[in-house]
What we know:
Blueprint lengths: L7 H4 L19 E6 L3 E2 L5 E12 L5 E11 L13 H10 L4 E3 L11 E3 L1
Antiparallel strand pairs: 1-3, 2-3, 3-4, 5-6
Amino acid sequence: MALPGFNAATSLYKTSVHYRLMGASVQANGVVPQLCGPCFLDNTGACVQDCTFTFCVPFGRFGHRCFTYTLTEPCNPSACPPPPPPDCTAQRNACTRAGGIIYDCLNCADCPPCCFVCT
């Protein structure tokens, strides 16, 4: 059986917590393996992925109680799509709406990425 997007490299992750099974099977008491979504760029531009895992503990005569956690973990930057290009039209419009003055640059290398300065 093939699992798309899953291989030995993606199954490894760094953790600061040590996990131990508490029962004979995962369905009993213990840790359910984490499930991680695809890598994406967060609002800071970092390449991350959301991983969910469930931890079950004995709960007296009621059997066990399970807790589900979702953590955002770092990804290899090569696993993320490139950031979208800047919307220069929206930046120009925001500048003029705020009362700014737009100065086009003679050399775009001097004022990337949109080749203008808003003052």
